[in-house]
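Extended Data, panel c. Modelled sequence:
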Amino acid sequence: MRSCLLLMHSCRIPGHGVTFLIGFILSAFLFACDSGSPETREAQDLESLPMDSSFDSGPRLLVLGVAQDGGMPHMGCKKACCRNPFLRSASARSVVSLGLVDDDGVDAKGLLFEATPQLTQQWDVLSEWGQLQIEDVSIFLTHAHIGHYSGLMFLGREAMGANAVPVFVMPKFRAFLQSNGPWNQLVELGNIVLRGLKEGETLQATSRIDVTPLTVPHRDEYSETVGFRVQGPKRSFLFIPDINKWDEWDRTLRDELSRVDRAYIDATFFDASEVGHRDMSEIPHPFMVETMRMLDSLPEEERNKVHFIHMNHTNPCLNPESDAFEAVIQAGYHIAQEGDEWSL
């Protein structure tokens, strides 16, 4: 709504005829932007989630966000990618997160990978989608960068006032949360309960889901960084939203792909041309073009496992109409979309 009003303000032109025409067009646009109350829009969003026809009674995965930590629009960005709503997908604004629901007919449990700045909305979507209560959900965190853990604040006394939400973290990350405010207050008040993870050690997260943390190289100022290999009763997936260049890892992406049925991997930047004002050595993510070049010799069925995620606001693949998006699809890869579903 606010963006629509700003657009109307910026487009005032003298002349009654022109003003009427523009007013009519913008009124239609404003109506489209404000298509009901928040409750109505939320219900529509939930109803519009695509359904996987292969679903059975097994665990289910839902993509809750695909953007890099800063989200969309990105703070301070004056480029068209953030200011022109027609150049980005409406489902590309939430920060990267995956949700899992495992309902075995006796006890429904949920797993939430990452606690993003949009935790409130993502939690609501996951709980409605999976018919979960708050006490049914556990959170798994990859590392201590703002887009991946800062949503924990909404579990505190100023917001939800949650009771003993399990939060799974690596040792350094655990010590950071216990020793620094405001996070240690969440621990002291019992809003969250920290559970330990160990590199390569598989944890039985639910009766039918196993989670294995895999350390990856990244900027580890406050914590380790991990990805997760998640195994369901029929299928498995890899989740690595953040990593430095692939050749810095003590594992190989090819080998890890061979062990899973799907992979959600770092796609922060499409190529080196996106961020001209930043020193790319400070943010050494693998470019999508590098990852595809590294994997292009793999069989089609292996490339088909890759779903790129964690896209910076500058990444042209956030726009489904872009040449970059089309090139990725034509090469046999996928770009994760908010609302994607998959069964495990």
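The chain has a mean pLDDT of 81. This feature is highlighted in the accompanying rendering.
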